[in-house]
Amino acid sequence: MRQRSYAACKGEAMQKFIMVALLSLSMFAIPLQADSQKHGYSAPKEEASCCAPVLITQKCVDKQKKVYTITKSGFYSFAEDITGQIIVKANDVTIDLCTHKLDGASASLYALQAEGFKNLEVYNGTVSNDGLWGFLVNNYENYNFHDLVFYPVNGVIDSFYSSHGILRNINANNNVIGFTLINIYRCADLELTDVNLCHTQRSEEH
Phi and psi at residue 60, in whole multiples of 5°? Predict the structure, then answer.
């Protein structure tokens, strides 16, 4: 009877070892998968990419009321200069003007109005509302207005009963003041950084 070589025996033993190892792993994976389904968790998945911004165009503005109302949380972006008023009625709203202009066109007392919600950020553009105000923030928590030019306006911001506000890198030079450019009433934790109000003059009406 021929004896098998040492190499052949070694190779056969290795194959058996690999088959046993794979079988053991397979048996271990089945109860693990069942347990994960039972407790409602699964392997980590790659996070979905951030949603695209909601583009605001002039067509979005109500022609009669000259108002665009935000009622859902999210990221909004100007696609062009907008004439009319922006009203914010939602939490967690970010508005990027994308170097465009929000022109209240003196149709409303405020170019942007935000009341009774929280977490609002507006930045990167110009706000105008000739003879009237830029922003109203009333009963609001956490707002951040930065990298904005206000011109021409009679006032930059009218803030009442709000908390945790930031005004940063604001240029409101060369405006004609009505009562005041920044009006703060019963607000807490307001931070002003690089807010420029130079070369302003008082309106003859005040």
Answer: -75, -20
Gap between the Cα atoms of 141 and 143, Å rounded: 6
d(CA 155, CA 183): 8
Residue 181 DSSP code: S
Contact between 90 and 114 under an 8 Å Cβ cutoff? The reply is no
**Quick check: pTM over 0.70?**
yes
- Tens digits of per-residue pLDDT, 76-117? 999 999 999 999 999 999 999 999 999 999 889 999 999 999
Q: Can you read off the two tokens belonging to residue 153?
A: 């306006």
CB atoms within 10 A of CB 38: 9
| DSSP character at residue 73 | -
SS (H, E, C) 111-136: EEEEECCEEEEEEEEEEEEEEEEEEE
Tokens of 160: 């009442």
Cβ-contact 111, 87 below 8 angstroms: no
168: tokens are 């940063």
- Rounded Cα–Cα distance for residues 201 and 189 (Å): 28
Answer for the pair 164, 142: CB distance below 8 angstroms, yes or no: yes
